[in-house]
Amino acid sequence: MPIPTLTVIDHPLVQHKLTLLRRRETPTARFHEVMREVSQLMGYELTRDLPLEDRPVETPLASFDAPLLTGKKLCLVSILRAGQGLLDGMRTLLPSARIGHIGLYRDQETLTPVEYFFKVPEDIEERLVILVDPMLATGHTAVAAVHRLKDAGAASIKLAVLVAAPEGLRTFHDAHPDVPVFTAAVDERLDENGYILPGLGDAGDRLYGTR
Ligand code: URA
């Protein structure tokens, strides 16, 4: 069954850059750079519905009413540590957004998330939250992160991932049907270790050159 809250960002630049990220031979520095570029392009789509209000402006030649952003302020929340890769680019695009961090790691036996850090702005209930994590695999981490954000008062949340597995999308939508999901690709499936196939490998390791 299709996921009604899913948007696949199939822009040619996003798709091209995602392929560069998937390539095994893409080195760490280039991976970081391209992830940053992709996240800016994704940020453009994620913010497409931000409300505008006409406000008076004086150009060197005339006065008129011109559109400026209005409504809720933004908060970008990164799931550590791979989320930092997407956060960097989006922050460039949205420099006045507040930033939150959620530290969750996947227990390699159970594949369930374990929280070790949580810090978000106090006024999160007044903000539009964009939660970023490159890989939506089983979906458990994103589900847990959104539960924590809702517990902290967040009422308006979007999830941005680079690559999603069908299993993760279903799990996430079942838990949080009110949260729209944006992804650059929906891949084939998970492997027996919970990695996305074909995917791009471990996003954190590729971003930081670990392993
Ligand atoms: N996390 C990753 O970094 N990669 C996957 O394929 C799945 C989860």
TrEMBL record:
Location of the Phosphoribosyltransferase domain: 8-210
InterPro entries: PRTase-like (IPR029057), PRTase_dom (IPR000836), Upp_B (IPR034332), UPRT (IPR005765), UPRTase/APRTase (IPR050054)
Keywords annotated in UniProt: Allosteric enzyme, Glycosyltransferase, GTP-binding, Magnesium, Nucleotide-binding, Transferase
Sites where the protein binds uracil: I196, G201, D202, A203
Record note on cofactor: Binds 1 Mg(2+) ion per subunit. The magnesium is bound as Mg-PRPP.
Activity regulation: Allosterically activated by GTP.
Catalytic activity annotation: UMP + diphosphate = 5-phospho-alpha-D-ribose 1-diphosphate + uracil
Family annotation (PANTHER family): ADENINE PHOSPHORIBOSYLTRANSFERASE, URACIL PHOSPHORIBOSYLTRANSFERASE, CHLOROPLASTIC
HAMAP family: Upp_B
Free-text function comment from the UniProt entry: Catalyzes the conversion of uracil and 5-phospho-alpha-D-ribose 1-diphosphate (PRPP) to UMP and diphosphate.
Family under the similarity heading: Belongs to the UPRTase family.
Name of the protein: Uracil phosphoribosyltransferase
Organism of this sequence: Azospirillum aestuarii
